[in-house]
Amino acid sequence: MGDKNSEAVIIGGGLAGLACAVTLADRGVSVSLFESRPRLGGRASSFEDKQTQALIDNCQHVSMGCCEEFNRFCQTVGISYCFRREKQLYFVGPAKSNNDLSASNESRARFKVNSFAASSWLPAPLHLLPAFGGLSYLSIQEKMELVRGLKRLARIPVDFNNEPTMAEWLADQGQSQNVINRFWNVVLVSALSESLERISLSHAQKVFVDGFLRARDNWQVLIPTVPLEQLYGDVILRRLEQKQAKVHLQTGVERVQIEAGKVVGVQLRDGQDLSCERVIIAVPHQRVLSLLPDTFKGRESLESVEQIEAAPITSVHLWFDREITELPHAVFVDCLSQWMFNRSRIMQPSSETDFYYQIVISASHHLRGEERQGRSQKEIIAEVVEELSQIWPETRRAKLIHSRMVTEHQAVFSVQPGIEELRPSQRTDVSGLYLAGDWTSTGWPATMEGAVRSGLKAAEFLLDDLGQGESLLLQQTQTGILSKILFRL
Ligand SMILES: Cc1cc2nc3c(=O)[nH]c(=O)nc-3n(C[C@H](O)[C@H](O)[C@H](O)COP(=O)(O)OP(=O)(O)OC[C@H]3O[C@@H](n4cnc5c(N)ncnc54)[C@H](O)[C@@H]3O)c2cc1C
């Protein structure tokens, strides 16, 4: 396995492990990556749907303009052309704002599609005024209330040791239930996959500051045009191999061996022992402690990881015999469904004859409860289809050829108050041991961006220990001058 002094063993081939591997291999470090599954990509993965024989994603993954490290990683490995950048979002909300409803109950359509697009000439953050202004399901007073709330949220200094949940903060600010349901809930639950009752103020602040207020294109959404397995599969594998990195698929690591405060090797699940002095553990947080010896100096500092809670995400996959909407995607307001992705339109090139849609329901704790109380997947799928029918009547005429529901119970870590204290640094107390993974300390929620950042940080620490110190993360984007003045960013 090469010179064991400079070799880095990476455990886990998710985005954190991959970003770390690519970065180290590009800098001449000899890398061996072990992934227990037969493919790379980790939680951003696909599987074959038996009935359609199509490769479908466990759940639609999207990136945003503000995900700079992830977007740069995609460029580095040559996959950025597999994303389409949405410069217009579609919000499907109640056809009338509350004021309109009290004036007249005559509208027949329950839902209306609102297009959300920024101005091409106004500076940030004013460029978003036309977009927010166009949300017809909020009254003018509600929009003003929302702007007041956003301004306060951006400016508030957060005490990480004693911060409220977003629900508590919104109540303190006197934000009305309608604005909470139709705006804060819609954006934050899908961005952070948690309910407002559990989201910490600091994470909510990050979503709005980084995603909307800091710079012009940060809010734009990037959607993969190929299945995730294809995205994070062969191209990255080949690139790693070209750089002499060894990738071992279907090879789980049982344990990291530590002696006298130093890494000395790893034991594979098949019993093989490999000696090495540098290991990056890039597995989900639930698995970390099981990879480490029961006792070693420095273990206590990692035990907080066990207190990190997870949050679920559900996706409902639907195949119809006809197109129910031409929109490539839509964000739903006041519905069980939260996002719709028109995969047949998004995929390049789509060879399917059926029309495939994916509906995402983040923070789906409530569905798990319902399943337990006897509400079957079939009923949940029927509710989703009924919602689509109310929005796009063509759904009633379409035949639902096939459907399935996938719930990832440990999709992301839960961004509750106090979470930042539980997230460890990528550098540990053990010589030669580093951590990576979306759950390590990056300041980002559980996202592909957070995972890539963690991989870069781990690589940065390792290179530093090898005497090749270098700053690997990009400087923070320049904040627009007006955003600085208005929000003190
Ligand atoms: C349903 C769902 C929807 C999501 N939507 C989005 C989204 O829209 N946008 C976004 O940015 N993020 C999204 N995320 C989050 C994103 O997928 C994760 O934050 C990111 O992929 C985590 O990467 P990671 O490398 O930290 O961990 P993982 O992807 O979990 O990778 C860890 C890897 O370690 C491997 N492993 C574990 N134990 C061992 C062992 N003993 N030996 C060898 N290998 C091992 C695992 O098999 C896995 O491949 C979503 C996640 C889910 C589940």
From TrEMBL:
FAD binds at residue 253. It comes from Gimesia aquarii. It comes from the Bacteria. InterPro entries: Amino_oxidase (IPR002937), FAD/NAD-bd_sf (IPR036188), Flavin_amine_oxidase (IPR001613), SQase_HpnE (IPR017830), Zeta_carotene_desat/Oxidored (IPR050464). Its cofactor is FAD. Its EC number is 1.3.5.5. Keywords: Oxidoreductase. This is 15-cis-phytoene desaturase. It holds the Pfam family Amino_oxidase. GO terms for molecular function: oxidoreductase activity. Residues 15-460 form the Amine oxidase domain.
